[in-house]
Every structure is written in C-alpha cells, then in structure tokens.
Write a structure and sequence with these properties.
This protein has 130 residues and is mostly helical. The protein has a domain of 54 residues. Strands 1-2 form a two-stranded antiparallel sheet. Helix 2 packs antiparallel against helix 3. Keywords: Membrane, Transmembrane, Transmembrane helix.
Length: 130
C-alpha cells in the first residue's frame, strides 16, 4: 500500500460557494435565493437596489409604528415631567445668573459679570423653550 500524496496547497483558489450577505450561509453558485434566510443573492442592478431600499423603508416604518404604539401610554407623563424639568432648570439658571450679576456689580468684577450674563441668557432661553 502506498501512502497518499499530501496536498501542499491549502486552498486551490476555486470557490464553488457564495456566501449570503445577510446571514453568511454558503450557497451554490446557481442559487438565486439564500437557502437559510431566503434573501436574494443577485448582486447589483438598479431594480434590485430599488427593491432592497423599499424593503428597508417598509421595515423602518413598521418599527417606528410599533415603537409609537408602545409609547402612547407614556407620552402624557413624559411631556409633563419634561416641562417641569425645563422649568426648574431655567429658573435655577436665571436665579443664579441674577445672583452672580449682583455679586459682580458689588465687587466690580468684569469676568464674573460676563459669566452671570451667560447664565441669565441660557436661563431665559430655557424658559422661552417651554
């Protein structure tokens, strides 16, 4: 009995499978759809691009609709809490700006008055955003 020849070549360069871009499943060259996830294996082309874009947009629309349906019960409570949070944040910024501005006037500090004006400005903008 003779020993079989060892193949020194690890990869012969010929690939008889093509991988699915969606799931990575190996398919035959003649297949049009993946045998595992049923997605199209046809590459390129304007019509396939339009079809894939259509499916992606439909999927996003369905996902947004499901998410909006789940958040219907939380929206009134969250909007109320958001309004209260903005009101408190705006009041804190405005009051601290007034306090810092009066302190800057008493000490004649120009840099502190600039910081106080920024606090006042951001406080008023936050209160206007409600």
């Amino acid at each position: 009995m003779s020993k079989p020849k060892k193949n020194s070549e690890l990869f012969n360069g010929k690939v008889d499978n093509k991988l699915c871009l969606n799931c990575g499943f190996p398919n035959r060259e003649s297949d049009r759809h993946c045998m595992y996830c049923k997605t199209s294996l046809l590459q390129g082309g304007f019509f396939s691009w339009i079809r894939e874009t259509y499916y992606i947009l439909i999927w996003r629309w369905q996902l947004n609709r499901k998410r909006d349906h789940l958040n219907v019960f939380l929206k009134p409570r969250l909007s109320f809490l958001k309004t209260i949070g903005f009101l408190l944040f705006g009041l804190v910024l405005t009051i601290s700006g007034i306090h810092l501005f009066l302190d800057a006037l008493s000490t004649s500090s120009f840099s502190n008055s600039l910081i106080a004006c920024l606090f006042l400005y951001y406080g008023v903008l936050t209160l206007r955003g409600i």
